[in-house]
């Protein structure tokens, strides 16, 4: 008993603690622990400072990623930004009327105004035009802020005048008929004439004068320059422009003063003696000055009023020149950046005074950032009233830095906004001997951290404690350690950017571990326009070669042409150092990682050039030996999108005509030609080469098995009709169709083909295991759709017989050849999908056991996780029970979008381009990295983390809980032993045979006959029904007389007067704790010579139910009474009746829940009868009377008694009298308002025995033995008692009634005999 109570306490404590942990461990405690998000803007192309005295100082920039952003000049943080989309490139940026940011985009066709403080769009104007042309924006500089100005925009061959207040187009001038390519548009300050200048062809120069108010053409002049022009025309002053001639060896000054056009030619060799190469005019806006670059020499030239050129300065290491900045009235300054000895030299000069420097500062710069490409300057007033300057510079790696007072104020790694490719690398293994105190800095911090965690778990932490918890976790969390973890969460993300720079990002917090600007991808004489292609794992050392660091292979081209020369770099992923580089080499059209490694763990790679020749790397004899062994098993394919051809290739022999043992010729195996009139290739998707498939078999609902068609050579191809390849709205539904193919790339066999009529691209697809999911647009339904195709192998359909497996007659181990025609079947289904899709991927885990989820990059730049079960082609409207058990979801026409399924939560990955999934060592969890302009990383568990505890699990709390539970068990056990001992002592005292202290006669507690039981009766008397309404039991068998047994009266004899004081002779319940125990010696009979009678042996009683079985019975009945239906509750009561009524146990322990269930059925018609029997049987034990009172049995009996049948009411009254023997029961009866009226009514209605119970209850209410604290009762109660005593009443009832009348002090007495 003691151990049982201790276990109950243990379970209650565990339940409490688990609920506390659950309520706390969801929200603020886990912010930023498993994911991180980084915001970027990209490489800056235009910049405008806004540093007025009022408001925050900021700089507004536009980038190559088509982002408009406002940055804080103090810290470099983003105030606001907008990503305009991949097809909405920003052409120009400026600030109008002091409060609007004006942007021109989409080749001069869209003009927008943004509110400067918060970035909200104020207005948008669409400027129409037909001819592609240079985009120009001219915003007049105003002295008064808020004054309306006319914004001049040239684009698409038209000049527009737009109001800066509301974006209304005031007038427009079409130049498309003039065939002129406008180069510059400007309006001199204070003039109403707009000048538009440009060239026609390569030699004619045209100048237009237009009225600024009406757009009327005032004058048009043109002139021909025989030597022709090259490049753009640069505006130097209001009436002079500069250009290069067609040979790029001379400078041409164009003067159009007073409407007349004149040319002046100056040879560059006259200005720069050492010029051997062609010159380039730098696009700077300097008044009276311009700069040209000849080789590495920067030449600054001044233009005189007569058009003559004068060299101002020659700078050898100059990198960039800024635009002119108005410092004061009539004075303009500009900045020049030079690179000297690993430092950058910032010099600010006045345009009219070259000899004096306004600023000259030297700043140490990380050489991994490369050269300065752009510089923008801004001025501010120092405390001494002099002019200070700050410079915003754009580096070669696309990073953005602010320089001020010779220091780098802040920097932004904007190269990460243009990621080209991603791979991962493992971290080093943690060395042995590292203690916990060392990892957590020291023991005090370790203890402090766990104390704070404990306070947070118990919800005792203050806001300061919560902030400290988050700070400690983000600072000292193991997720940011530079070593591997056993779950595989900590890795390095090796990313390659468009600038040719490698970054190593830690998956724990996204910080940059190292960065490397690859020399092979920097501009050089041999590689003028290098571009990065992809990155691959080159060397991945395992545990037996941990002394080697992993490395990656980076491939690139010298320009964007697919047949350009290639460059290769090999980089150590731990240190970020370049191990080796090759290039320029052969062209790189395709890179195939082979599943082979050499003795140094270097993976073999096959590089395919533009001529379909294969080149093996690494170029070692060991690699060539391994490769020769697999020579005949290597296949690949090539896709010619423009020609609509897919070809299959295999190795043939060593290259002919080339002395290179690592070069191999190829041969064409097959080709698929799509007719250009009907189909155009828009998407091809292969399987991931490192994907893990757990099993090929798939169990279906009917206990059948389907075998997946697993092939790494499967290719998904999507084609559309030519008209459907354009933008939306260009083709009608009847003119467009989408055709998808599943192609085997070894044989060229088309395994499946399906056509979607009335559909078009773009198509985004993912191929995994044996299924492909793709997204497209349905023109007929005007909605996006997602379709799924699953392919199964029918050749293994016979491998379902166990005996075939046992006898080896299956074909599971037979060789598989792709040249044998596969027996496949496909299942497909299509669904509507709400969003347009930018990218799509699938989760991956270490063993492929965990269920799959699709990761969909939506048009809103968020990542949605969609369970693959929603894209099961076997879904039906009404799935069978077996299909439901398998997990098949009922069919709907649309895929659900659950807000909680967005893995990015409320965050956005602006400009989302790709989603990369990486398996962790923990099977339940995968890693997800999404990148675009922003970066986002998180963990994902498609089937929840079923194989691990959470990282924030409090081991300290667990230890404290275990200690507390052990102490609680011990204390509870000691207390329970003492309580049990006290119960036994009280039971022994109660069982003493004191007849005078008994409450009821033995007939109520023992098996009696219909006669009144005499004290001399034997303990085993024949049993009889509970009441007169119950059917009688069969008579006991007659036996021969036994002389050794005392004689007993016949069962049919009537009650004797000697036992008239006994009561309740009809009940069959024994009372082990009664003063008259069946085992006590009976007193001698008053009649020594009883009348002879026939003796017999009574029927033996069933033994009492063992304690353990009784408790189990109580538990089952409790569950049915509390949660079951009406029939179940009635069955539970009948079960208790059959178990307790024939022979109740000595001390049944009843739980409060069970007692409440019994009491609750007293008022039901069907359950009242068994409920009264069970209640009476339970109340025979004194301990259960307390439980019954607490369960509300007193009130229930009082209120239900008038409605019960006679037998049930009699049992209920008996139970009520038993409950009155405990103090709380008596108190509740006295306090019940209906107790007295109901007892009076029961005395008048019921037979003698029920009268006895009612009188006993009234005696308890009114003090029964002379209680002094009771007030005198009303005369009606006394009169009702007197009337009851006159009728049929038992001897005990008469005695109780007489005592009650005496207590009531009633003068009128009725007969009591």
Automatic annotation (TrEMBL):
Location(s) in or outside the cell: Endoplasmic reticulum membrane
Gene Ontology biological process terms, A to Z: protein folding in endoplasmic reticulum
Signal sequence segment: 1-25
Topology of the protein relative to the lipid bilayer: Single-pass type I membrane protein
Low complexity: compositionally biased ranges: 1016-1030, 1047-1063
SUPFAM superfamilies: Quinoprotein alcohol dehydrogenase-like (SSF50998)
Transmembrane segments: 953-975
Family to which this protein belongs: Belongs to the EMC1 family.
Self-association and partners: Component of the ER membrane protein complex (EMC).
The protein's name in its UniProt record: ER membrane protein complex subunit 1
Top-level taxonomy: Eukaryota, Viridiplantae, Streptophyta, Embryophyta, Tracheophyta
């Amino acid at each position: 008993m003691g151990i049982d109570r201790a276990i109950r306490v243990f379970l209650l404590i565990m339940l409490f603690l688990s609920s506390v942990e659950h309520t706390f461990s969801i929200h603020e405690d886990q912010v930023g622990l498993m994911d991180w998000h980084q915001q970027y803007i990209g490489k800056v192309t235009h910049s405008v400072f806004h540093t007025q005295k009022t408001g925050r100082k900021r700089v507004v920039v536009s980038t190559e990623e088509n982002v408009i952003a406002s940055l804080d000049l103090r810290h470099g943080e983003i105030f606001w930004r907008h990503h305009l989309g991949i097809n909405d490139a920003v052409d120009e940026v400026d600030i109008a009327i002091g409060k609007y940011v004006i942007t021109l985009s989409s080749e001069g066709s869209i003009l927008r105004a943004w509110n400067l403080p918060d970035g909200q769009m104020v207005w948008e104007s669409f400027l129409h035009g037909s001819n592609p042309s240079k985009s120009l924006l001219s915003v007049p500089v105003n002295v008064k802020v808020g004054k309306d100005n006319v914004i001049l925009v040239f684009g698409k061959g038209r000049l527009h005048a737009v109001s800066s207040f509301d974006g209304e187009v005031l007038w427009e001038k079409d130049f498309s008929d003039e065939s002129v390519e406008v180069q510059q548009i400007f309006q001199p300050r204070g003039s109403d004439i707009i000048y538009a200048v440009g060239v026609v062809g390569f030699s004619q120069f045209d100048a237009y004068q237009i009225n600024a108010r009406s757009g009327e053409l005032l004058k048009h002049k043109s002139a021909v320059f025989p030597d022709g022009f090259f490049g753009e025309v640069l505006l130097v002053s209001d009436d002079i422009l500069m250009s290069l001639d067609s040979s790029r060896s001379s400078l041409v000054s164009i003067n159009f003063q007073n409407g007349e056009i004149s040319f002046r030619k100056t040879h560059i060799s006259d200005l720069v003696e050492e010029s051997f190469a062609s010159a380039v005019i730098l696009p700077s806006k300097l008044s009276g000055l311009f700069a040209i670059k000849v080789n590495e020499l920067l030449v600054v030239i001044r233009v005189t009023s007569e058009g003559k050129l004068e060299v101002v300065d020659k700078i050898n290491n100059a990198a960039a020149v800024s635009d002119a900045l108005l410092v004061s009235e009539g004075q303009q300054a500009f900045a020049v950046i030079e690179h000297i000895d690993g430092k950058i030299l910032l010099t600010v000069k006045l345009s009219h005074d070259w000899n004096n420097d306004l600023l000259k500062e030297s700043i140490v710069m990380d050489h991994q950032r490369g050269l300065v490409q752009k510089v923008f300057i801004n001025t501010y007033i120092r405390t001494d009233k002099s002019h200070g300057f700050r410079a915003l510079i754009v580096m070669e790696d696309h990073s953005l830095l602010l320089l001020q007072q010779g220091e780098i104020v802040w920097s932004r790694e904007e190269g990460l906004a243009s990621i080209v490719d991603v791979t991962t690398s493992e971290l080093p293994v943690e060395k042995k001997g590292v203690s916990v105190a060392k990892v957590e800095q020291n023991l005090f911090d370790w203890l402090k951290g766990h104390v704070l965690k404990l306070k947070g778990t118990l919800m005792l932490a203050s806001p300061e404690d919560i902030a400290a918890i988050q700070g400690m976790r983000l600072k000292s969390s193991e997720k940011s350690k530079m070593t591997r973890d056993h779950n595989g969460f900590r890795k390095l993300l090796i990313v390659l950017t468009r600038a040719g720079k490698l970054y190593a990002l830690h998956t724990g917090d996204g910080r940059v571990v190292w960065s490397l600007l690859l020399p092979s991808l920097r501009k050089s004489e041999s590689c003028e326009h290098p571009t990065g292609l992809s990155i691959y794992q080159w060397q991945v050392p395992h545990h037996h070669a941990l002394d080697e660091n992993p490395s990656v292979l980076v491939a690139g081209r010298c320009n964007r042409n697919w047949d350009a020369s290639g460059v290769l770099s090999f980089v150590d992923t731990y240190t970020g150092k370049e191990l080796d580089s090759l290039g320029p080499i052969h062209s790189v059209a395709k890179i195939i990682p082979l599943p082979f490694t050499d003795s140094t763990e270097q993976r073999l790679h096959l590089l395919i050039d533009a001529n379909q020749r294969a080149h093996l790397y690494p170029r070692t004899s060991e690699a060539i030996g391994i490769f020769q062994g697999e020579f005949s098993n290597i296949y690949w394919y090539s896709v010619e999108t423009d020609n609509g051809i897919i070809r299959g290739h295999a190795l043939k022999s060593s290259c002919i005509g080339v002395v290179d043992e690592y070069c191999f010729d190829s041969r064409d195996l097959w080709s698929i030609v799509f007719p250009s009139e009907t189909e155009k290739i828009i998407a091809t998707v292969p399987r991931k080469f490192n994907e893990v498939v757990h099993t090929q078999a798939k169990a279906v609902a009917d206990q059948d098995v389907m075998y997946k068609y697993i092939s790494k050579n499967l290719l998904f191809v999507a084609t559309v009709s030519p008209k459907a390849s354009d933008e939306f709205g260009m083709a009608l539904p009847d003119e467009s169709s989408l055709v998808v193919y599943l192609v085997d790339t070894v044989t060229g066999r088309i395994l499946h083909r399906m056509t979607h009529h009335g559909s078009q691209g773009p198509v985004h697809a993912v191929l995994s295991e044996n299924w492909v999911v793709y997204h497209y647009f349905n023109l007929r339904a005007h909605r996006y759709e997602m379709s799924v195709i699953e392919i199964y192998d029918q050749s293994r359909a016979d491998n379902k017989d166990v005996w075939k497996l046992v006898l080896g007659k299956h074909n599971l181990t037979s060789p598989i050849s792709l040249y044998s025609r596969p027996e496949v079947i496909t299942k497909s289904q299509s669904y509507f999908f709400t969003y347009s899709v930018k990218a799509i991927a699938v989760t991956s885990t270490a063993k492929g056991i965990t269920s799959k989820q699709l990761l969909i990059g939506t048009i809103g730049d968020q990542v949605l996780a969609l369970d693959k079960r929603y894209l099961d082609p076997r879904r039906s409207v009404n799935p069978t029970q077996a299909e439901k058990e398998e997990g098949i979801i009922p069919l709907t026409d649309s895929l659900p979008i659950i807000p909680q399924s967005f893995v990015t939560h409320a965050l956005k990955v602006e400009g989302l381009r790709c989603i990369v999934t990486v398996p962790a060592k923990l099977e339940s969890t995968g890693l997800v990295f999404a990148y675009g302009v922003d970066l986002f990383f998180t963990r994902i568990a498609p089937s929840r983390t079923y194989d691990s505890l959470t990282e924030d699990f409090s081991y300290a709390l667990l230890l404290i809980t275990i200690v507390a539970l052990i102490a609680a068990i011990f204390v509870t056990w000691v207390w329970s032993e003492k309580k049990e001992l006290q119960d036994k002592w009280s039971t022994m005292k109660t069982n003493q045979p004191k007849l005078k202290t008994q409450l009821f006669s033995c007939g109520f507690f023992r098996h009696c006959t219909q006669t009144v039981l005499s004290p001399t009766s034997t303990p085993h008397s024949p049993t009889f029904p509970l009441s007169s309404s119950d059917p009688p039991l069969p008579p006991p068998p007659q036996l021969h007389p036994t002389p050794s047994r005392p004689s007993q009266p016949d069962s049919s004899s009537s009650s004797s007067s000697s036992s008239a004081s006994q009561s309740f002779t009809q009940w069959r319940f024994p009372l082990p704790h009664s003063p008259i125990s069946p085992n006590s010696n009976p007193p001698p009979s008053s009649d020594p010579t009883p009348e002879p009678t026939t003796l017999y042996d009574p029927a033996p009683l069933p033994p009492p139910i063992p304690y353990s079985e009784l408790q189990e019975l109580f538990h089952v009945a409790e569950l049915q009474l509390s949660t079951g239906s009406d029939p179940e509750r009635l069955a539970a009561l009948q079960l208790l009746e059959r178990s307790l009524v024939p022979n109740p146990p000595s001390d049944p322990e009843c739980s409060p829940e069970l007692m409440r269930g019994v009491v609750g059925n007293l008022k039901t018609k069907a359950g009242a009868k068994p409920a009264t029997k069970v209640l009476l049987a339970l109340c025979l034990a004194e301990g259960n009377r307390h439980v019954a009172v607490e369960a509300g049995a007193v009130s229930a009996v009082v209120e239900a008694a008038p409605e019960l049948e006679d037998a049930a009411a009699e049992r209920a009254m008996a139970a009520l009298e038993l409950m009155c023997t405990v103090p709380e029961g008596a108190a509740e009866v006295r306090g019940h308002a209906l107790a007295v009226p109901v007892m009076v009514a029961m005395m008048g209605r019921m037979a003698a025995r029920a009268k006895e119970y009612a009188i006993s209850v009234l005696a308890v209410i009114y003090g029964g033995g002379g209680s002094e604290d009771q007030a005198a009762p009303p005369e009606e109660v006394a009169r009702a008692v007197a009337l009851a005593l006159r009728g049929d009443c038992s001897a005990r009832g008469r005695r109780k009634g007489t005592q009650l009348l005496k207590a009531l002090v009633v003068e009128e007495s009725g007969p009591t005999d």
